Here is the input.
Amino acid sequence: METRHTALVVGANGVIGSNLIAYLEEIDGWDIVGLSRRGGQNTAKTTYIAVNLLDIEDCSQQLQQLTSITHIFYAAYQERPSWNELVQPNLDMLVNVVQLIERVAIDLHHVSLMQGYKVYGAHYGPFKTPAKESDGGHMPPEFNVSQQQFLETTQKGKKWTWSALRPSVVGGTALGNPMNLVMVIAIYAVISKELGLPLRFPGKLGAYDRLLDLTDAGLLARATLWAATNSQCANQAFNMTNGDLIRWNDLWPKIAAYFEMETAPPLQMPLQTIMADKEEVWKSIQEKYQLEKHSYQALSSWGFGDFVFSRDYDFFSDGTKARRMGFHEFIDTEKMFFDLFDQLKEKKVIPAGS
Ligand SMILES: NC(=O)c1ccc[n+]([C@@H]2O[C@H](COP(=O)([O-])OP(=O)(O)OC[C@H]3O[C@@H](n4cnc5c(N)ncnc54)[C@H](OP(=O)(O)O)[C@@H]3O)[C@@H](O)[C@H]2O)c1
Here is the structure.
């Protein structure tokens, strides 16, 4: 008889969570519960629940019914204005969901945690590259590290195990996300084109020729499930990247060509400032090309764009641990961008002719 598992995907509407749900839907053997504040449209395999993980009353009430959960996939995220302020809410959300689920779900088997390169201090400045899972830590506070420490401590003596995935900047299509590089580039390109401008790299000059890796959200979903369901991965963390490296000075002109645009030399311009007054232009583009009427805010993660484009230092990890242990997939990053832009066209988020 087929063994069925029940996944609780926490952060169901996120760039990462939504792609994980899409993958679990494709494969056999999984029932899915998608958790976020906004909820979602149920499907044959996925039931969405709207829960605020920072509201302990709401959590207690709604999570106690989730007795069949076998795997928690944690990919929720709360944005805050400073690195220090990220810690408390992001730790609280994980603690609330794990403590309540382990109390009611007697078959809980695994907790998967989504992390990132902040574990390596990548947000502070030049960090050791390629970053390895075995590298020494840095001075706290840092929310990914606090979350992992919570799992390590809580798991002791339990029959469930944990794993952690450490992607680079993630490429995926989702709406209303504070960290969405593909959306940043697509909306910036379409507006530039509409205004008759070339596609100018808006980051630091030094960021244009640095090495960078990225992680496709679909690849990440498959790796996350691999780590969660293979016993040799228990209680360990894994870098997860596409497997290649890029430099913007090579990729940017190709992105411009995709959008049928000219390029011009880079000019550092804070996207948060220069894109703040472009809502009316965007609305007129939506009208002109009969696009879906998503709000400009839901499509804007300009602060994240500024963050990524201002890294004038190498930004990549060593992805061989997962490959050595059995996950062998890779993705061409150039193709990833074009496939994701194509998806945005199909979903009528950006004009088909752009
Ligand atoms: N995106 C990237 O490029 C990237 C790169 C490396 C690492 N990561 C890491 O991966 C993790 C997930 O990131 P992401 O970019 O996928 O995040 P995201 O797109 O912002 O998604 C976050 C999810 O959390 C949900 N959420 C937020 N607050 C909540 C609350 N109080 N209660 C319940 N659900 C809540 C959101 O849905 P609702 O709004 O509906 O609640 C959303 O589904 C983060 O730890 C991030 O640091 C991301």
